[in-house]
Amino acid sequence: MSIIRVENITKRFKDKLALDNISFNIEEGEIFGLIGPNGAGKSTLINIITNLISCDSGDVFVENKNLLEDTIYIKSIIGLVPQELAIIEQLTPYDNLEYFGYLYGLSGKLLKDRINEALEFSGLMEVKKKKISKLSGGMKRRLNIAIAILNHPKILILDEPTVGVDPQSRNHIFDFIKKLSKENNTTIIYTSHYMEEVEHLCSKIFIIDEGKEIAFGDQEYLKSLVFSNKKIHLKLNSLSADLLFNLKNLKGVVSQEENKDMMVSLIVDEDFSLSNAISLIENNNSSILEINYEVPSLEDVFLNLTGKNLRD
Ligand code: ADP
Ligand code: MG
User: Fold this and answer.
1) Domain 2-224 falls in which CATH fold?
2) 10 Å Cβ neighbour count for 26?
3) What is the pTM of this model?
4) Engineering a disulfide at 33: which of 128, 205, 226, 235 sits with its beta carbon 3.0 to 4.6 angstroms away?
5) Hey, which of 44, 209, 213 would you mutate to test ligand 1's pocket, going by the most ligand atoms within 8 Å of its Cβ?
């Protein structure tokens, strides 16, 4: 079942067309990546899905209910981690969680359990009584996420949660999100302008640029849009001129890049068979010491589809 359906959403800010007829479905339990450069329209879309701002036309359905008709129920099942930190600097992590827990209507043992769970999940147990000013940027981000999961939302939306975060905290956030998805079957919407992040994390990816859909699908599909060929690097224990010639003429080999020492790099298409290559190499009294495939990155996909780099 699609837990979220976004249908033909259009939004203007004065002359600026921020979203141009955007549609997609999100399946329950999926980690959905919304990716695009700064100003693409990601936060605007998140703000519409969470009913913080209205759209000019189009509809959003959550669990088949119209966002504008079942607003209170839908709000109760969505946790939002906004792009800007929403924590109280004067309180400790524990007290922040307690305060926001009260706002969600939690109290007593349930609240205590949820706070401990959120601290555990976010890896903040050891700093729960520290001053916020003593926490790193990454820890603050994690606290921002911990607050959003107190309420056990069915849907967790994270708007650029890793901006300004050190690599260690970033990995911690990834693990945290994967764990939520796996253990609680939480549906996750993750926005970013870093391709390699969604590449690690997301099962489906929607690429947006200047308010328009650029592409939507799983990674395999997105990569197939621009690449049907792969690059393969073989390290051999011996390489004769004959063997090189035969490799070049093997079925499925499109071209051969410069070889160095005992390395051969081949561009191959879907007709290439590795077992044929192995037989050929062995029949030429050589063998493979090392083999590497070079897989195209989503960054390459974005560059190919828009002619632009994702990075500013
Ligand atoms: P992203 O989150 O992908 O960086 P945004 O959704 O924040 O992009 O912005 C998309 C576009 O809409 C940008 O050009 C931005 O300047 C514009 N925009 C966003 N919010 C407003 C607003 N409240 N008023 C006017 N323009 C806005
Ligand atoms: Mg944004």
Assistant:
1) Rossmann fold (3.40.50)
2) 22
3) 0.78
4) 205
5) 44
Do 172 and 138 meet the contact criterion of CB atoms below 8 Å apart? Answer: yes
Length of the chain: 312
Distance (Å) from CA 102 to ligand 1 centroid: 32
Kindly provide the residue ranges of all beta strands, DSSP E only, lying in the chain, ordered along the sequence: 2-13, 16-27, 31-35, 57-62, 65-66, 78-81, 155-159, 187-192, 204-209, 212-217, 230-236, 253-260, 263-268, 288-294
| Domain 228-295 bears CATH identifier 3.40.30.10 | no
Instruction: Encode pLDDT of 246-299 as tens digits.
Output: 999 999 998 887 677 889 988 888 888 999 999 999 999 999 999 998 876 777
C-alpha 28/C-alpha 158 separation (Å) is: 16
pLDDT band, very low/low/confident/very high, at 170 (cuts 50, 70, 90): confident
54 in ligand 1 pocket by Cβ < 6 Å? no
pLDDT in tens, 112-123: 999 999 999 888
pLDDT surpassing 90 at residue 312: no
Domain boundaries, the chain: 2-224, 228-295
> How far, in Å, CA of 293 to CA of 233, rounded?
6
CA angle (259 as vertex; 231, 286 as ends), nearest 5: 90
| Residue type present at position 270 | E
